[in-house]
Amino acid sequence: MIRIEFWGQLKELVKYDAKKIIKQSKQKIVFDYPITRRASIKDIIEALGVPHTEVGEIKNGQKKIDFKYIVSSKANISVFPHEIPLNPNNYLFEEPIEEYKFITDVNVGKLTKYIRLLGFDCAYHWTWDDDKIADIAYSEKRILLTKDVQLLKRKKVLWGKLVKSSNPIEQLQEIVTFFGLKIAKDTNKILSRCLICNEKLLEVSKQEVIHRLAPKTKKYFNKFSLCPKCNKIYWAGSHVDKMKNILNSLKIFIK
Ligand SMILES: [Zn+2]
């Protein structure tokens, strides 16, 4: 039997017999857990419902341990969530996060466009199944954003974030806060990426696209960019102002 406690938001993820809970407070949930086989702390934490991606620190007593730690009976384990914003070099990661590149699944499909709108690389396709998503996350070193707890438990998922809200703007807020994403106000990062296919946009002259523009666009706009993949033309129209307002309210810009 080990004594185990989960702190912060992690306690909401724990699936365990409520009758066996020893202590439950705003900060943590505490219970005893029988060890019936040789198991790493990672296996135990995930068996209790918490994906490895959500864990920021584990201790046995006062001693920091990692996921490979083999738990003996009488251990006194504390499991903590990530600090916010996330430390990209967290010691529990198999490798540090070098770039904030994402992958989303259908459960948070609408979030994809908002992330791309910020100029961040976010892979998504509605036909991808869980195997494919895990493979891409692993091979392209992407951070998985999903509402699917089981998908986050996969070994190939090196980093991820369980998204809570079902509203895409609130989801964006969660991601921005959790990863501490910041974009300078004076950069052109907004609208630097195709919202449909994730490709980096190419700047084009008005002359190159003028034959495809509606009369009003032709009259009021002079800067254009083009997606090299789907050929869609982008310009800073009213929807961009609307988006900038949303982003301002998310405090996403550096002052
Ligand atoms: Zn495109």
Amount of beta strand: 15-25%
- In sequence order, what are the helices and strands, one letter per element? EEEHEEEEHEHEHEHEEHHEEHE
Rg calc: 22 Å
How far is it from the N-terminal to the C-terminal residue, by CA?
A: 52 Å
Brief digest:
With 255 residues, the chain is an alpha/beta fold. It has helices spanning 41-47, 111-117, 130-139, 149-152, 168-179, 206-209, 215-220, 238-249; strands at 2-7, 21-24, 28-33, 55-60, 63-65, 76-81, 102-104, 122-123, 143-146, 160-162, 183-184, 202-204, 224-226, 233-234, 253-254.
Description:
The chain contains eight helices and 15 strands. The protein is an alpha/beta fold and 255 residues long. It folds into three domains: 80 residues, Ubiquitin-like (UB roll); 82 residues; 56 residues, no CATH class. The strands form four sheets. A six-stranded mixed sheet has the order 2-3-1-6-4-5, with no helix packed on it. It is elongated. The model has no long low-confidence stretch (mean pLDDT 93). The site of zinc ion has 8 residues, from loops.
